[in-house]
Description:
- By secondary structure, the protein is α/β, with parallel strands linked by helices.
- The chain folds into 2 domains: 2-112 and 290-322, 2-Layer Sandwich (Nucleotidyltransferase, domain 5), CATH 3.30.420; 114-289, Nucleotidyltransferase, domain 5.
- The protein is 46% helix and 18% strand.
- It has helices spanning 34-57, 81-86, 103-110, 151-167, 174-183, 191-196, 203-207, 210-218, 222-246, 267-280, 293-304, 311-322, and strands spanning 2-7, 12-17, 23-29, 66-71, 97-101, 116-121, 125-131, 134-138, 254-259, 284-286.
- It has a 5-stranded mixed sheet with strand order 3-2-1-4-5. The chain has a 5-stranded mixed sheet with strand order 8-7-6-9-10, sandwiched between helices.
- Helix 3 packs across helix 11 (293-304).
- 47% of the residues are buried.
Amino acid sequence: MFLGIDGGGTKTAFTLIDGEGQVRARHVDGSLYHPEVGLDGVAAVLQRGVQATLQTAGCSIDDVAFSFVGMPCHGEDSTLQPQLDSLPAAVLPAGRYRCGNDMVCGWAGSLGAADGINIVAGTGSIAYGEWQGRSARAGGWGELFSDEGSAYWIAREGLALFSRMSDGRAEPGPLLTLLQRHFKLADDLDLCGHLYGPQAAGRSGLAGFAPLVVAAAQQGDRAAGAIFIAAATQLVEIVEAAARRLGVPMDAPLSVSYSGGVFQSQALVLTPLRTLLTDRLPQARLVRPRFSPSMGAALQAARLAGQALPLAALARLEQLDAA
């Protein structure tokens, strides 16, 4: 059996599969974003999640051939890297797991671990791809100055738009009323207390306001809708950068897929993304994700163990994952 752990900025999904294409167990737990939850928090989520997954499957860790642990920020701080890599050792046997950035989970899931690029837009954003044995990433430098097109970025842009609407610097639209109602604002400036006060939302909490911007755009707020066009533009730029770093020839067909909660808004992001991708990377073809990122983590575990699943098993998992 193979265990995939897709750690995100908001939640972590555990998926245990076997070599015949059966899902033996699934579990969802808290975030593995260590800048927010700390290393002890990451260790606690891993311990709880692995134990709960094994309990559901009715097996022990000895039955798991290999595991892949996708972590936010993995590979982005060389001084911290040894500690991150050692955290799963409390629950996973040494030599039978590997850690990597959670972007790998999205790529392996969306493209079935085939050559191409996957763009992740969840709490944060990043692109990762593989091409003829090479791998490359682009974006994903964190919410302070990057993560363009992510839920955090959309929420921040939406809050900035709210401030302009309130000031009269922008024409008032549905977003103004939606945020006033959501935060129960007696005065618009009370928003500052919600965002900067003792109960201020962290990274994942602020990203959770992105659906309000989605709702405003769906209600006809043109300024809110423009945020999603800008998000799609940023995401395509990240894909372009990844393609350049991979050395993909301009005349070579390139599969591009996507994962993350931002794409649940469907047409708001995917429609401009598809158009912009065609204009700027004519050889690229936007394809629907084949598997979820958590299933991708399990497939990556099998791949790293040298036991890539046969086509029949993959087809079975595809049906189960869609269900």
